[in-house]
Amino acid sequence: MEKRRSRLRRSLRASALDGTLSAMMVGFGEIYFAPLALFLGASPFQVGLLATVPMLLGSTFQLVATRLAHHFGDKHWVVASAAIQAGVCLAAAVLAWTQWEGYVALLALVCVYWMLNLGIGPAWNAWMARMVPASMRSRYLARRNMPIQLFLFLAIAIGGSILQFSERITQGPALGFLTCFAIAGVARAGSAHFLSRQHDPGKGLKRQQPSLRAAAAGFRSQPYGRLILLIIFVVGSVNLSAPYFTPYWLKSLRLSYAQFTALTAMSFIARVVASPYWGEIARNYGNRRGLQVAMVLVIPLSAMWSLSDNFVYMLGLQMLAGFAWAGFDLCHILNLFDCTDDRNRAQVLSLFNLMNGAAIVVGSLLGGWLIKWTGDSGYHYLFLLSALGRLSAVLIFGPGAGAKRAGEHPFSAVFVRVITLRGAVLRQP
Predict the structure, then answer these.
(1) How many Cβ atoms from other residues are within 10 Å of residue 355's Cβ?
(2) What's residue 4's pLDDT?
(3) 16 falls within a domain
């Protein structure tokens, strides 16, 4: 028993370090794919394609990846994919310096990056659900998210400073992009190392061969069906506008790299502060209630971008967004864990990733089409349509989504508790 506990503690520490280094890859690399595309001469529509084509390929590839993970083992597949991602980031660093084939080469690299990113998802989630006991998931994942969001913020802030400094001393950001993506590659290599240090309690066990048909068969009758529909319709609505914030900020509003970095980082500052709070909300009031409250909070966020382009206002809006999305990110994962078990989790997550990827692609392409035909004025139409789509999804699918908790508190009571930032436990109804 003591040996198992010691092994779990070591694995949880390694998981936290893996998450932190992975966040550095995102902060120094993934965040700057779109700015790098603009530097290489991409149009806003091409930037939108950068957010859709890789997602479409990744959503398809993860169906194959699930079978590969089943064949080689979840742990081996995740570690190998992380190592290849490190190579992709280093290749992007070389591309930023040489500008060889420009946008086309970047699109190819981003496609590989997202194929691996989505291919990792089902295997990693199934592995973590086996490794982390259910009784400690919400608290552990919330605490794990704190350093992840902190280092993500630091990486974005430092990355933006590097780009700004590079532009000042070399009359262009090429050296800055080279530096950022090189750091991202090294960080992901370190992440792969710490992934290899974690144990897999399911290693060697014979599990059911992943099958989309098995997951789809229970879609109407199982709790995960309505939950997945809620998430994908919200995600699709979000991606009407999400891929176009970078060109909106950098081209339409003509913000500097420093201002772009400040806006991006502000969201992650809020996530750092909010993650443990949402962990307590999920633990005290249930993962389903936490998700429902977070969903309501994200509804108006995009529409609020049309109210003002004052930079201080935008910083405040990013802080609010970070708080709301921290709850969504944590609670939707916990709900997927609640609605699945080790027997069907990989299959369900594969179906979820496929539908999620399709929603991202459809939303982004619709948004790109509108921007292409309306120009700068189209951004504000996108912001409003995105908010309306989120509202519709929450009204239609929100009430019955997720696994209901015994003695669940009323939604209104939990919602008031959250928006007033009070975390004390309510009396049982």
Answers:
(1) 19
(2) 76
(3) yes
Q: What percent of the chain is predicted at pLDDT more than 90?
A: 27
Instruction: State the average pLDDT for the chain.
Output: 84
Q: Is there a domain that residue 428 lies in?
A: no
With tokens 């529909």, the residue in question is: 229
Question: pLDDT-derived band of residue 427, with 50, 70 and 90 as boundaries?
Answer: very low
CA–CA gap between residue 179 and residue 318 (Å, rounded):
26
What is the CATH number for 255?
Answer: 1.20.1250.20
Whether residue 205 has pLDDT greater than 70: no
Which range, 240-244, 302-306, 354-358, is most confident?
302-306
DSSP letter for each residue of 224-279: HHHHHHHHHHHHHHHTTTGGGHHHIIIIIS---HHHHHHHHHHHHHHHHHHHHHHH
In a domain, 197, yes or no: yes
Q: Side chain identity at 408, as an amino acid letter?
A: E
CA pair distance 25, 118, nearest whole angstrom: 15
| Encoded tokens for 251 | 């081209």
In a domain? residue 9: yes
Looking at residue 220, the DSSP 8-state letter turns out to be T
Among 113, 125, 72, which residue's Cα sits nearest to residue 352?
Answer: 125
Q: Average pLDDT in the 56-70 region?
A: 80
Q: Which of 419, 384, 392 is nearest to 304 (CA)?
A: 384
**Can you give the residue range of the structural domain that contains 272?**
2-201+208-419
The number of domains in the chain is 1
| Mean pLDDT, residues 122-143 taken together | 80
For 99-217, where are the alpha helices, taking DSSP H only? 102-131, 137-170, 174-196, 212-217
Structure tokens at 418: 């959250």
Give the separation between CA 94 and CA 88, rounded to whole angstroms: 10
φ, ψ for residue 264, nearest 5 deg:
-65, -45
Determine if the pTM surpasses 0.85. Answer: no
